[in-house]
Amino acid sequence: MAKNNISVYLFLHHKYCVLKKVLPLFSYILHPIFVSLYATLFYLFCKEDVFSRQEKYFVLIQILVINIIVPVLFYLLLKSTGHVKSIMLSQTSERTIPLILQCFLYILLVKRSIVITRYPELHFFFLAGLFSTILALVCVLFKTKASLHMVAISGLTVFVIGLNIHLQMHNPYWPALLILLSGIVASSRLEMNAHTSREILVGLFIGIMPQLLFLYLWL
User: Fold this and answer.
1) Would you give the distance in Å from CA 40 to the centre of its chain?
2) Distance (Å, rounded) from C-alpha 213 to C-alpha 219?
3) How confident is the model at residue 194, as a pLDDT?
4) 78-101 b/e with 16+ CB inside 10 Å = b?
5) Which residue stretches of the chain have pLDDT < 70?
6) Dihedral, CA atoms, 82, 88, 92, 93, nearest 10 degrees?
């Protein structure tokens, strides 16, 4: 009996150690900087018959440049000048400039690239993302740190659920996957001691509410 208990303990301990190593990977794979690209890919996949292949590539290149390459280059500049220490922006004081930049990039997207007349659903996703970013910036001004990972993944989850309903896809797997990934990301941030439970919940609220409010405009 004692040997069985020891075997179970060792098995569970091994699984726990593996989980501790795997969880942080999700903080990088589902980093906020990549979520816009994931949302765009999902959107184009769901409406593949509406857009030509050339247009899809054009949209993806715009998202890649505006929402990934520009922020990465700006991050490298901030890191070289000592304004930020890591891409996770673990300190509240490090977030002001990147969030302001993100606001301008979202405005550029919704005004010039992802326009409402051509990409209405994606347009409102980015518009809600702009409001979420503004709320995260307000939190910084009040010395409160919201989980930007949760802001991003929860916003994407609402968007995917909304598209699933709007396009009558009747596919429960994508929403279920995103809900599961939201939980994994939350666990990852807690495991890395990057956030408290309160900061996770604040990020969840900031990510969900703007998306839900704009959902009524296109659902």
Assistant:
1) 12
2) 11
3) 83
4) beeeeebeebbbeebebbebbbeb
5) 1-20
6) 20
